[in-house]
Amino acid sequence: MERTVENFDIQELVCPHVFEKFGERGWDFMDERLRLWLRWFRKAINKPVTVNDYDEGGSFDERGYRCILCPLVKGKSEKNVLYASAHTRFQAIDFSVQGMVTSEIIAWIEKNKRSMPVKIRIELKTNGWVHVDVCNTSNQEIIYFNP
């Protein structure tokens, strides 16, 4: 089974802690449904997609797989707040697409949903990015939700 996603390096999809410890083995943690969806999306949209960009000096480092050392997760744990995000199971990504705003990306996904390889969920009310996860167990191609 192919363990990568074309046009992505693993550090674009995992937090710096995971990349530092596991390197390319980070691919092993990715849910296969997310891999299939991301591969489909990147090829179908045919535009640059940004998840994490910390490896290029950017500020995004928790938009893919988040481990227990990531500030979002660690902060909740320190406050004794359960954090069960799909990001902690490598079943979710937050991303942007070059030249498109959030509403355009979501509209594009909606228009092309019948060709998606797996069912997804999309978080509502994001601004500047889109959250997609593969935690959809319904009969619908897309479930929209509020966090």
Can you offer a commentary on this structure?
By secondary structure, this protein is of the alpha+beta class. It has one domain: Muramoyl-pentapeptide Carboxypeptidase, domain 2. 27% of the residues lie in helices and 14% in strands. The chain contains 4 helices and 5 strands, in the order ααβαβαβββ. Strands 1-2-4-3-5 form a 5-stranded mixed sheet, covered by helices on one side. A hairpin with a 6-residue loop joins strand 3 and strand 4. The relative contact order is 0.16.
Brief synopsis:
With 147 residues, the chain is an alpha+beta fold. Helix content is 27%, strand content 14%.
Biggest sheet: strand arrangement: 1-2-4-3-5
Net shape: globular
* First-residue to last-residue Cα separation: 33 Å
Main beta-sheet strand count, sense and barrel state: 5 strands, mixed
Determine the oligomeric state from the structure: single chain
Share of residues in helices: 25-40%
At the first level of CATH, what is the class? Alpha Beta
- Overall average residue pLDDT: 95
Question: What's the arrangement of secondary structure elements?
Answer:
Elements: H1 16-22, H2 32-45, E1 49-50, H3 71-78, E2 92-97, H4 102-111, E3 120-123, E4 130-133, E5 142-145
Parallel strand pairs: 3-5
Antiparallel strand pairs: 1-2, 2-4, 3-4
What structural keywords apply?
147 residues, alpha+beta, Muramoyl-pentapeptide Carboxypeptidase, domain 2, five-stranded mixed beta sheet, 27% helix
